[in-house]
Every structure is written in C-alpha cells, then in structure tokens.
Structure prediction request, 794 residues.
Amino acid sequence: MHIPENYLSPATCAVMTAAMVPVWVHSVKKVKEELPKDKIAMVGVGAAFSFLGMMFNVPLVGGTTGHAVGGTLIALLFGPEAACLGVSIALLLQALIFGDGGILSFGANCFNMAFVLPFVGYGIYRLIAGNNKEASSGRIYAGAAIGSYIGICIAALCCAIEFGIQPALFHDAAGNALYCPYGLSIAIPAMMIPHMAVAGVVEALFTVAIYAFVRKTSPDLTYDAIRLENPASGSKKGHAPIFALAAVLIAATPLGLLATGTAWGEWGADEIAEISETGAPLGYTPQGMVDGFAMEAPMPDYTLGEMNEVAAYILSAVIGTALLVIIFKLLSQALRGKTA
Amino acid sequence: MIPEWMKKTEDYVPPADGGAFYYRTLKSLGGIMSRLRLESGREGRFSLPAGVRLLLMIALIILVSVTQNNLVIMAVGAAVLVRLAMMSAEDISAVVKAVLVAVIMAVVIFAPAVIMDPARLWNSLRVVAKILISVTLVGIFNRTTQWNHLTAVLRKAHIPGTVIFIIDITFRYIVLLGNLMQDLLTAVSLRSIGRNDKKYNSVGGVMGVTFLRGTEMNKEMYEAMQCRGFTDDYEGL
Amino acid sequence: MIIELKNVSFKYEKGAEPVFTDLDLKVEEGTCLAVTGDNGSGKTTLFRIINGLSFPDKGEYLYKGTVINEAYLKDNACSKRFHKEIGYLFQNPDTMLFNSSVYDEVAFGPRQMGLRDEEVEERVRDCLKLFEIEDLADKVPYHLSGGQKKWVALASVIALNPEVLVLDEPFAGLDSKKEAWLVDFLRELKAAGKTLIIATHKEEIIKDLADGTFMLG
Prediction:
C-alpha cells in the first residue's frame, strides 16, 4: 500500500500532508499527556517494531506469503496516538532510506497507514471488545481480528480514492491523465479486491497471533492494561477528539483536493502571469514558469522552437554518454565477479 | 539416565510442508540489517552536507513531479544519470536494481491504460520517466548519505528535541530488535523440521518476543539514563 | 566421516577481511571435538557453516559425504532432514525461545515430525524430566532466569534427537553441580553414538570429554 512517487499529483500530496499535520500535533500532545516520562521512548520502540513488522512474511495457504502493515496491532500494543507517530516514523525511514514509498507521497501514505488504519482498527476493536477489564478473550480477539481487517480495508479504500481522483483532476487539454491513469471505477476494485481477499486476512492473522502471544505472556504490557490501570490518563477524555478530527478531515480533505486540484490542473500561462503579478511585486511572468507549467501541450518541446531542440539534442547526448558509462561499469563488475 | 529413544539413530523422512516464510523474512531482514550496519552510504570528502543534499533531492523530486515540460524532465534526468555514472559499479548496481523494480512495476500498472486508450502513451511514458528519475534520486541519496547524519539535519531544521530523540532511538532499536528477530527466526527455521500446523504461533512468538524485549530494553535504557543524571528533559538531549 | 570441511574460507562480504582461510576440519561419527579460540576468531561463523546457515566462499563442507550448499538446502526435504540431524545451541540460548510455554517450546520440533500424539507427549515429558524442569512446563520461557532458559533451549534441541550436537559455550555461567551434570549427560550421548562439537575454554572438561581439540585463530 506504499504509494510511490509520481502516482499522485503534487497537489494531492500537499493536501494529504496538510491533513496529517493536525493529526500529528494531536498525537504528540496525547502521547505526552498519556505516557509516563519513561515511556516516551516507547514511540521509538513502536516505530522500530512497525518497521520490522512490515518486513515479516506471513504464511498463507499453499506456501505463499504476504506482508502486513500491522497498524492496528501497534495501536493495540502502544495506543493509537503512539501508533500514529510510530508508523509515521517507520514510513519516513522507509521512504528516505529504502526508497519504499515516495517522499512527496509521504503525507498520503501516513494518512492511509498511520492515521486511518490504526484509528479505524482501534476504534472497531474498542467497539467489539468493550471498555472494561472483564471483556472475554473471545471478544478481544474477535475485536482485534475484525478491527485490523476493516482498518486495512478502509486504508486501502482511502488509497484507492486518492488514486482514483487523479485522472479527473489532473489531465492535459486532450483529457489524458498526468498521473495515475485509472479512475475510481477501476482504482477501487483494483485496490479493494486484493485487500479484502488477501491483505486483510494477512493483517488480521498477524495482529491476532502477536496480540495473543503478548496477552498470554505479559498481559500487563498491552495498551489496554496501561489504559485501565491508569484511568486518569487514558479514558478521561477518551478518543472523542480524534474521531471528531477524523470526521472533519474526511469531510474537508476532498474539498481541499478539489479546490487545489482545479487550481493546479487548469493553470495556464495567463493565470501564472496573474498569480505572479498579484503574488510578486515584480509584475512579470518568468519565462521558465511559462514553459514549466504549460500543461496544455502533451509534447511542449515540439513547439518551443530551435533553442529547445538544441538543448534536447545536447541533453540526449549527455544521457547517452552517462548510460554508456553506467552500463560499462556494471558489465565490468559482472565480469570481475565471474573471474574472481 | 537418558531415555531409550535418545539412544537410537532415527532414519527421518520429513513430512511435506509448503511454508518457508521465515526463510523469506530472514532474507529481507538480512538485507535491511546489512544496509543499516555496513552500507550506510559513503560520504565523499567533498560531498555537500547531508541537509543540503536532502533539500536538493526533495526540490528535484518536486520539480520533476510538478513539471509537464519534457525538456525539464530530460535535464534533471541527464543530471541524475551523470551523477550516477560517477559512482562505483557496486553502488550503481544497487541503485539500478531498485530503479528496475520501480520501473517494471510502473510499466505493468500503466500498460493496460495505454492499451485501452493509446492516446495515453505519451503521458504514461512521461510518468514512467518521472518515476525512474525520482527513484534514482532517492537511491543516489541513500548511497551517499550516512543515515545517522539525518538526525543532525533534523536538528538543524529546529525539529523538537523529543522528536529527534525518538528517531534516534528508532534507529537504535531497529538494529537491536532486528538482530534479535534474526536470531529468533534462525531458531525457528533450525527447528522447523517437518510439518508445522501452527505457523501463526511462530509468527506471534517471534514478533511477540521482539515486542517484549523492546519494552524491556526501553525500561532499562530509561533507568540507565536516570542513573547518569537524566532529568526528563528530552529537549536538552 | 560425518563432518568434513575442506579448504574453507569465509568472509562476511566482498572485500572484507576473511574470518578464516583454508580451514580443514574432520569429525568422526561418535566422537567429541572441542573448539577453542579467542572471541572473534570465527567460532560462531564455523558453527553457522556446520549448521547450513552460512556457506563457505571457497572450499567445501561435506555432511555424511554430501556437499552442503545453498542449492542442496533449497530442497525442503533435504534441509529439514539436515536440520533434524544437526542440533545447535546458540551462545545466547534465550534468543532461541519463541513459544508461550516451556512445554510448547520443547514440543515445537517433535510435533512436526509426524509422530503420534502420545509419542510427542512422551518425548517432551522425557526431556523435561531429564533436565529437571517439569515444574516449568506451563511457565513462559521469556520470563525464566538465564540458567533456566539455557536448559529449556537445550531440551528443545535434544527433543529432535539429533545425530550431531553443536554447542556454543554451553558451560558458560553454570555452577559446578550443573556443569558436572551436563558433562555426564554429554558423555552418555557420546556413548550412544552421537557426535558432539563443543566450543569451550574449560581445560578439565576438554580433557574429560573431548577426543580432539580444534584451535581457531
């Protein structure tokens, strides 16, 4: 579910990141309030645990395996706010160090996997398992299984919607998509079917297996135990604010997407001139921006005149030479590997 | 003293079982761990500070993502390829591998759209080119940056001390808990000598023990910090 | 010859200093070999090679005359039989415990062998009795003391009834009574025809138990 670079428009990425800011702020506040000082570093443990958990191959029928995100599990062990921060840090490291998931799409990935997934999963767990110490094991595990399953499916749905709105919002004059080419009617089934059939099952199995082990061996370490033992911090305010925040975000995010979407998608050179005039005191349109944002032409450099043809020619030569050097280096390394 | 069955030599024929999930997990984990341990990136003597390079990378990624001008994409692509060509063959092959995976995935995703509507070809090719450039950029950044310098970058960017502390801790725990996971998975694989009908118990065990050890190490670390005079002031770290 | 290493060299990665080069080692069936050497001399690496967890860069490792390499162990049946016949006690045995009860920990291997339920039960009970840890059967291995963890780990390896037992510093941290007990136990295993490879520095144990010493580094 890690959205790579360039499948979403930069505008979508910006909106999703903006949507995450209040969530992160809320989570930091809540974690500081709720966790005792000695548990601050637990967020780091949660992040490391989340990072490593995403490496884990979970066995499926017939010797096949799948990966879990583990968002609900982290929420069950560390609390949803700590989970949000932990999964966010894990996603940041994956994007920066391992190139897994884009850097611009970091906000969108956090929205889906660090916000929607743990909070939805945890909310459903709470609904099913109840709010007291006497909850039966059956209800707790049913809650963990159903919560994590629905959590990842809703996260996948958010991801599908982010993909699906791209062609409608960001296309050139001929109507051809500039980013993800599939609309909602394709993106939603394409994301939902594998998540509902496979990934959701993996997520539920993974969550229950680990949660059961921890409850059996050290029941005092789960978030439930910490919350119930320390009611002053945990259930005083509950999670109502975050659900209110979620409702606002879910309502506001599409509006933001539509607003910025049209603004970005429909920018012509005239509008750039306008924006630049009102935005900057200089009052002229930078030539580079006219070229840079000219979205109407599918192949702008065909129409840009001689200068650009020369530039393109030089660039092609540079690219060709660089590629030759790269191929030569790779070949000589492969040969050296064989003779050694 | 020892029971009779222990004195015998067994002619053992293992029952069939499909699962080899721990081998795969061990493999992907081993890759990650060795990257974190050893190949944390070689920073040349004259390379720009990590922060500048991070900003440069993000700026280029944004530029490539935003622009619809083929010339701009080509120019960034040329610059990225030249930089890549200057690296060692070993680093190049690591970056190229990651790029190939991303590009193949992109082609697979975009191909049906192009087949359905050939007019999409140019835009799709452009997105694939953008993906190629972005992934190469991240790859080059990884290969030339020591990840522990990232926290120094964040400190300069005036990110709160608590956040930096947590990120630092995360790196340390990924290495410590990752090593533990490797040992546990090795133990599971060595004793998985036949048909395991309760594979999820092993999954729960490996990750569960990793979690328990993580919380325990966290407690120990906090106590050690207190013994050395730490006063709960994470900002001052 | 049950275990034979011919001209084995190993390094962690390309370009690194080799851990050892041109190492030759032969172990006869039913004998006990003591492995000594300073920390960092490659004991654990050698043990990993013997257990098929790492593979030599140069040279060959033969188990019962079969070359053990990645291709051989890719075959599920081969690798499972191989791991069943060689038991390995880690230097840090508590990283070997991943079950939620001591009973399950010891039963993990036998349950997979296609034995009848009573046979599994018998094996596990025998092992728990042997190591005098019957009262721990329902305890969580993670919460046991260091010494208890070592016994549980050893019991869970012994429960597979391996032909070859590779023990990395099994005597470290044992009191003299437990040490004497473990020496007696290992002597009995040897008498039953099992092969032992033990990393230890304790001279008296080497004299008492080992047929040969292999010095690393």
Q: What stands out?
A: The mean pLDDT of chain C is 91.
